Amino acid sequence: MAGRNGYDAFSMFLLVAAMVLLILARVFYRAPFLAVVFQLGSWAALIYCIWRVLSRDLYKRQRENAKYYEKQQAVLRWFRSLKDRWQQRKEYKFFRCPSCHALLRVPRGKGKLLLTCRKCGNRFERKS
Ligand SMILES: [Zn+2]
Asked: What is the distance in A from the centroid of ligand 1 to the CA of 73?
């Protein structure tokens, strides 16, 4: 394996994705078109994974892996924010700014409020 990329986080993700797609192909065996699509997707992910592991272009593979980490962190951040909002749902109400879609948090039960977006300065009225 000298000079090869080897296993990294993105390769591991591809391997897991290939297995999940293979399971989905089994689950949807009554829908032949879907099963074939899942099976082809599984093979594509597996072949790409093996190709990445054996690749000698370390710079490109490391950049792909870094991009994968960024996307993974974005997904984890989104889930964390969802969890935080769920935990705070009784004390706070959450609104999206109509112009920039930033998330605003206001205390519940304060009646009609004139909200000012911190990101863009847009003002709008909402009932809390
Ligand atoms: Zn805004």
From this structure: 24
